[in-house]
């Protein structure tokens, strides 16, 4: 294989990876441009997003003023960090959502009582069997799932391409 063909494949691959990397993992910035601050209703923010396994949730705030604790539902409901399973305080914390479950985050300095608490439900990448059956004729209620599957499907395509290139010794 000529070196120019090799170069072409490399360029194709790099541009594909650069274009698709933001699609593979969504970074959900808590509170969007208003960040992690008191006086917000983060339930409204969370209800406006769909979270998938592998996505990130990120908290942006004044370092040393606020922080982030991952707790369970009891900690969330009662605003207590007593049973916290993790804590962050950099002011720009990126937390991977690696499991399909409900996550709970609160601020640990008392501001939880002023609204600094957020709970997010993380969905698995593959739709449940019941949703997969309706794949051909999408029901309105399952419209969110296929979108997430689609963006991952695209990522899987790139991975396959990389694997094939390696397999044929193109890289
Ligand atoms: C935040 O909004 C949700 C959804 O509308 C509502 O159920 C909840 O009571 C609100 N929380 C506060 C503290 O206002
Ligand atoms: C919901 O998301 C849309 C699109 O990102 C945005 O325009 C809108 O302001 C959001 N609403 C709330 C309540 O965050
Ligand atoms: C949260 O964790 C504490 C300590 O492990 C436990 O006692 C409590 O039952 C948990 N709450 C929930 C809702 O699982
Ligand atoms: C949470 O708060 C409620 C009401 O204040 C209280 O009854 C309950 O015991 C608390 N739960 C824990 C695990 O502290
Ligand atoms: C924060 O997490 C670290 C481990 O990452 C732990 O050692 C520390 O005790 C935690 N701090 C609080 C206040 O829970």
UniProtKB/TrEMBL annotation:
Protein function: May act as a carbohydrate transporter.
Protein known as: Phytocyanin domain-containing protein
TM spans (from-to): 153-170
GO molecular function, one term: electron transfer activity
Signal peptide boundaries: 1-25
Organism: Carpinus fangiana
Top-level taxonomic group: Eukaryota
Gene Ontology cellular component terms for the protein in this record: plasma membrane
UniProt entry keywords in alphabetical sequence: Disulfide bond, Glycoprotein, Membrane, Signal, Transmembrane, Transmembrane helix
Record bears the keyword Cytoplasm: no
Domain Phytocyanin, first and last residues per copy: 26-124
Pfam families reported in the protein's UniProt record: Cu_bind_like
Protein family membership: Belongs to the early nodulin-like (ENODL) family.
